[in-house]
Amino acid sequence: MSAIMMSNEETGIFKKGLSRRPKEDEPIRLFIGTSEYEEPTIEQIYLFSIFKNTDHPVEVTFLRPSMFPDWKRQGWGTPFTCYRYAVPELCNFKGRAIYTDVDMINFRDIYHLWRTDLKGKPFGMVWDSLQMNDVKYKGTPQERGWWCDSVMVIDCEKAKEFIAPISAQAKWNGTYKWHFMEQIGSPYKNKSSKIVEEVDERWNSFDGSDTSYPYKDIKNVEKVEIPLEEIWQVHLTALSYQPWHPKYNPHAKASHSRQDIMEVYWRYNNIVKTIGGIK
Fold first, then answer.
1. What per-residue confidence (pLDDT) applies to 278?
2. pLDDT (mean) for 108-136
3. CB within 10 Å: which end of the chain, N or C, has fewer?
4. Mean pLDDT confidence for 224-242
């Protein structure tokens, strides 16, 4: 696991090492799911935004396919979909870790996410109120909504009870994600709240919207937007809107509806290019 540090100045230079950090300050362990080589732009922009907003030590580990060469990946939506569930074992089931997808921009000190009070539970996640669940839930209160694991705060020791060993995950037929969700009680929010602590929706704002908003009419949804200055971490999750458009993305390109977020993206893109982070 390598630690990558960045100066706090927006046009600063990437730095390595923890030498300027107090020894008693425990590093934040951040695992980022990403592809092998198709997303260097957003990887660098995401890292830039994280280190721009924190003075705390962060250990960053990119979860790439080359780390898991023997895994079955049939049915995955991305090249890294199920690697997130390996995190507790990668940490030897000790301490705390954060997992996020790569397609993010951070706006608030990630230390605040790291210090989330899990109230003794294994996981902290944002509730995704619009997630369409399996057809068996159609017409029930569970038709929409489940825990969104694209941002997770994990108590690695407590998580062991709910996650299969890496050796079993690697051979899993189908997508392990669905099994994991059943293990933690999703999409039954009240039942699963004994296992998952709800994290503030601003830590995983889907393309600038309020991910957890309790919509009454799920058939005619006009998403509730969060003002840019109130977003803590934006998840650029709509594949057509992703400006770097990875090759594994089968969707046509489209203009993002939140141009204020895109202005930040392109500004950070130019800064990172200037300091040599993107080739």
1. 59
2. 93
3. C
4. 94
The 3-state DSSP class for residue 138 equals coil
Tokens linked to 119: 């109230």
Output the six-digit token pair for 47: 């890292």
* Residues 152, 99 contacting (CB under 8 angstroms): yes
**Whether 221 contacts 209, CB under 8 Å:** no
Question: Coil, strand, or helix at residue 1?
Answer: coil
Chain length of the chain = 279
**Each residue's pLDDT tens digit, 26-43:** 899 999 999 999 899 999
Report the b/e string of 225-247 with b at 16+ CB within 10 A: bbeeeebbbbbbbebebbebbbe
Confidence check: pLDDT of 15 > 70: no
Distance between CA 11 and CA 60 in Å, rounded? 20
- In angstroms, rounded to a whole number, what is the distance separating the alpha carbons of residues 30 and 106? 13
Residue holding tokens 């109120």? 129
Dist CA 194 CA 185 (whole Å): 9
Nearest-angstrom CA–CA distance, 38 and 131: 26
SS3 92: coil
Give tens-digit pLDDT for 188-200: 999 999 999 999 9
29 to each of 53, 99, 189, 235, how far by Cα in Å?
Answer: 16, 9, 27, 19
- Please give the structure tokens belonging to residue 30: 């951040």
CA–CA separation, 250 and 193 (whole Å)? 35
Give the 3-state secondary structure of 187-225.
Answer: CCHHHHCCCEEECCHHHCEECCECCCCCCCCCCCCCCCE
Kindly tell me if the per-residue pLDDT of 146 is higher than 70: yes
Residue 259: how many CB atoms within 10 A of its CB? 10
